[in-house]
Design goal:
Distance between the termini: 45 Å
Helix content: 25-40%
CATH class of the largest domain: Alpha Beta
InterPro entries: LysR_HTH_N, LysR_subst-bd, WH-like_DNA-bd_sf, WH_DNA-bd_sf
Organism: Shewanella frigidimarina (strain NCIMB 400)
Number of strands: 13
Order of helices and strands: HEEHHHEEHEHEHEEEEHEHEEH
Keywords: DNA-binding, Transcription, Transcription regulation
CATH architecture of the largest domain: 3-Layer(aba) Sandwich
Family: Belongs to the LysR transcriptional regulatory family.
Largest sheet: 9 strands, mixed
Strand content: 15-25%
CATH topology of the largest domain: D-Maltodextrin-Binding Protein, domain 2
Structural class: alpha/beta
Number of domains: 2
Pfam family, one: HTH_1
Length: 315
């Protein structure tokens, strides 16, 4: 297998046109320069000399018969030709990595351990019915469960600390992570029934800026694409149950999944933010994500299939 991988690396040529041959190294240098913003940064990212990166890009420009970067400023900027080529280069590099991953896995033994990252804001009570199904089909599998914010789980998958994640959808995820939507969860804005915001109906949301906001943030301080700061006064947590407790104690208002808040609304401890605009919440999609290195494995295919029932499964 090592010889086969070496053969793939030796080839590293992709025919894109009738007479043109563009190497993987050229495309990697091009994409890395765009991603990092300079030839020197791309060289550090790819662990190569800057002169090598620059030459790969120059050779690619010669093969394309077009300038891909405007070098007149301090940092290279994509030309129209470069912008046109970029998405094709990104897709080709992604497919090349998938080929390498597939080739490397051909002689590997079946996966014996499965780590699943879970966002606690997603209702997970029904997950154990799905786990029972998985265990019945793969009785020797070892399972590990990690809880974190959705942003942190994406990082776990990216670094392969976990292989499967159940998260709220994010606008951007790494290209080597596969995903599919399995449903949605309703969110609304909540505040303690004793909080000042609960005492009157507001005709606009500008009043929220006058009160502390309780917000989800990842452990590396990244915010979710739908959890963003409105108020200048913000407290942060990395899971919704801490936000809930802070809200119940009157420390501020927050966006919560309805299934977490409903019990406390029914008991009178929590109220949906009083507003003339009745529908100020939204539906957040729930995704299953997996590192593409493992997506073809039978155990992960089975898990994806079962997780499609997570939000509809009857216990």
């Amino acid at each position: 297998m090592a010889i086969f991988i070496q053969y793939i690396d030796t080839l590293k040529l992709v025919s894109i046109g009738k007479n043109d041959m563009y190497s993987i190294e050229q495309l990697e240098a091009f994409v890395a320069t765009v991603k990092t913003g300079s030839f020197s940064s791309a060289a550090r990212a790819l662990n190569k000399a800057q002169s090598v990166i620059s030459q790969h890009v120059i050779n690619l420009e010669i093969d394309c018969n077009s300038e891909l970067f405007d070098r007149s400023g301090r940092y290279p900027q994509l030309t129209p030709a470069g912008k046109k080529l970029l998405p094709h280069a990104q897709v080709l590099l992604s497919q090349h990595q998938r080929l390498r991953d597939c080739a490397q896995s051909l002689d590997q033994q079946a996966i014996s351990e499965l780590t699943i990252g879970l966002d606690e804001g997603i209702p997970l009570q029904k997950l154990f019915n799905i786990i029972n199904e998985l265990e019945a089909k793969f009785p020797t599998i070892t399972l590990e469960f990690l809880t974190a914010s959705s942003i942190d789980i994406i990082d776990m998958i990216d670094t392969e600390r976990a292989v499967t994640g159940i998260i709220f959808s994010e606008l951007t995820i790494p290209a080597h992570i596969d995903f599919e939507s399995i449903g949605s969860i309703k969110f609304d804005m909540y505040v303690a029934s004793t909080h000042l915001l609960a005492q009157q109906i507001y005709d606009n949301l500008a009043h929220l800026k006058l009160h502390r906001q309780l917000l989800i943030r990842s452990r590396n301080t990244k915010s979710s694409s739908f959890q963003f700061a409105i108020s200048p006064d913000v407290w942060y947590a990395d899971n919704y149950y801490i936000l809930l407790e802070l809200a119940l104690q009157g420390h501020g208002w927050c966006l919560l999944p309805n299934h977490i808040a409903n019990h406390y609304v029914d008991s009178g401890q929590l109220v949906m933010l009083p507003s003339e605009f009745k529908e100020i919440g939204w539906q957040a999609n729930v995704d299953v994500i997996q590192h593409h290195r493992y997506s073809h494995e039978p155990v992960f295919k089975q898990l994806r299939h079962s997780l499609r029932q997570l939000l509809t499964y009857s216990a």
